[in-house]
Design brief:
There is one protein chain. Helix 4 links the parallel strand 3 and strand 4. The chain has 285 residues and is α/β, with parallel strands linked by helices. The strands form two sheets. Strands 3, 4, 5, 6, 7, 8, 9 and 10 form an eight-stranded mixed β-sheet that branches. Strands 1-2 form a two-stranded antiparallel sheet. Bound molecules: S-adenosylmethionine. S-adenosylmethionine binds next to helix 4 and strand 4.
């Protein structure tokens, strides 16, 4: 068979894989949901090789507080045999975007479509800070964050898929940056250091977290005393936003999930073309 015939067949295969995810809405542009979903093992808590095994004994278990602390820690990370929920607070959890579609994340017109320049201005990162990019993918936002915090600061980039982290490291090296560390997450545990993050950035990832509840607890624990979570999600309220429904969230849904789990809304930036940007801080009251 000639190479010429193989190329269209390969493209059809990618589309067929993407369409096999059970979603039926038409999408006018290439979106994360057009990429094949990540293998189930990367979503459901099946063990992946990593240096330290989380000690969680089940999704309803509460992680022990450190000695001398009476602070609530929230649900512990899931154990290896635990089955992830399909829904959370009435929302269907989306499938993880596979590394196969990573090119979409660094497309040339992303800034034009999502106004990522304004997004980063709104984040307000400062030199010397520790910024944590969770679900960092191939590092589109990581690189901007690393420039914003400068050589005296650091970025901790976290992702489930080692292939994404490999691409991210290659892009960081190419950019000549030396202040980025990477962490391979577990589906229910970002493995972030506690109390370290001045900012936890979640861009287009929260809706696809297989275990939202222990992840929320882990984000809260990872914040420095003045740290904030910046949540970026495509607007479900706006039918003009050309993204499949399962990959969008409404403000009301976001507040339902964060508001009752130790977070207080600290503000929102409503000037992005397609996305909500909502800031949460620890609600220690
Ligand atoms: C749609 S991509 C967004 C990537 C990046 N934030 C961006 O905007 O360019 C979502 C990423 O989240 C990652 N992800 C999904 N579930 C995760 C989890 N539980 N922990 C860490 N990363 C996760 C996926 O592997 C994927 O790279």
């Amino acid at each position: 068979m000639s190479v010429r015939r193989l190329v269209p067949i390969a493209s059809l295969l990618v589309v067929a894989l993407a369409c096999g995810s059970g979603r039926d809405e038409p999408v006018p542009i290439a979106t994360p949901s057009d990429a094949p979903a990540a293998p189930q093992a990367e979503r459901d808590g099946s063990p992946a090789p990593a240096p330290s095994e989380p000690s969680g004994s089940g999704k309803d278990a509460t992680a022990p507080a450190p000695a001398g602390s009476d602070e609530p820690r929230g649900p512990a990370p899931p154990g290896p045999g635990d089955v992830p929920p399909t829904h959370f607070e009435g929302r269907e959890i989306a499938q993880t975007m596979s590394f196969v579609g990573a090119g979409w994340l660094t497309r040339a017109n992303r800034d034009e479509e999502e106004d990522t320049t304004r997004l980063h201005q709104a984040l307000g990162l400062r030199p010397g800070q520790t910024a944590c990019d969770v679900g960092a993918g191939n590092g589109y936002h990581t690189i901007r964050m690393a420039r914003a915090v400068g050589p005296t600061g650091r970025v901790i980039a976290v992702d489930l898929q080692p292939q994404m982290l490999e691409m991210l490291r290659a892009r960081v090296d190419e950019a000549g940056l030396h202040n980025v560390e990477t962490i391979e997450a577990r589906p229910g545990d970002p493995r972030l250091p506690e109390g370290a993050c001045d900012l936890v950035l979640l861009v287009d990832v929260y809706h696809e977290l297989a275990w939202p509840e222990p992840m929320l607890a882990a984000f809260r624990r990872s914040l420095s005393p003045t740290g904030r979570v910046a949540l970026v999600e495509f607007r479900a309220e706006d039918p003009e936003v050309p993204i499949k429904r399962l990959h969008k969230m409404s403000k009301a849904q976001i507040e339902r999930e964060f508001g009752s789990r130790g977070f207080a809304l600290a503000g929102s930036f409503d000037e992005l073309p397609w996305q909500h940007l909502m800031f949460y801080e620890r609600d220690d009251g």
